[in-house]
Design brief:
CATH superfamily: GTP cyclohydrolase I, C-terminal domain/NADPH-dependent 7-cyano-7-deazaguanine reductase, N-terminal domain
Shape: elongated
Structural class: alpha+beta
Number of domains: 1
Distance between the termini: 17 Å
Order of helices and strands: EHEHHEE
Number of helices: 3
Helix content: 25-40%
CATH class: Alpha Beta
Largest sheet: 4 strands, antiparallel
Radius of gyration: 15 Å
CATH topology: GTP Cyclohydrolase I, domain 2
Length: 116
């Protein structure tokens, strides 16, 4: 068994997220980081078809954040985790979202860890 951590870090999207009126008024900048613990039966041998496709995950996240307004970062993180876990080779996923512009001196976020 070969184990790898596949990373998609710093994906910045503009989306509807939050419960406050100013958060509902316009999309805001959100940073999404994903770490997928992947288990392959053997080392991939430099073959793209043998590994988890992070291009697919990136595209699916873009589609997800355009699909609706999210009230909670927890919900967003759970849905991104479900996208990653749809590939059976992903044993565990960590998803973090960060609101980048709420406070001038800090970012606020959520992180979830889910297993397949």
């Amino acid at each position: 068994m070969a184990e790898y951590t596949i990373l998609l870090e710093g994906l910045e999207v503009a989306m509807g997220l939050g419960i406050h009126p100013h958060e509902r008024a316009a999309p805001q900048r959100i940073r999404i980081d994903v770490a997928m613990a992947c288990a392959y039966p053997e080392p991939p041998g430099d073959r793209i078809e043998a590994v988890v496709d992070y291009d697919f995950l990136r595209e699916q996240i873009h589609a997800l954040v355009k699909s609706r307004h999210f009230e909670l970062q927890e919900t967003l993180c759970d849905q991104v985790a479900a996208l990653a876990l749809a590939d059976r080779r992903v044993a565990r996923v960590r998803v973090r979202s960060m609101k980048l512009d709420i406070y001038p001196d800090a970012r606020i976020g959520c992180e979830v860890v889910r297993s397949g």
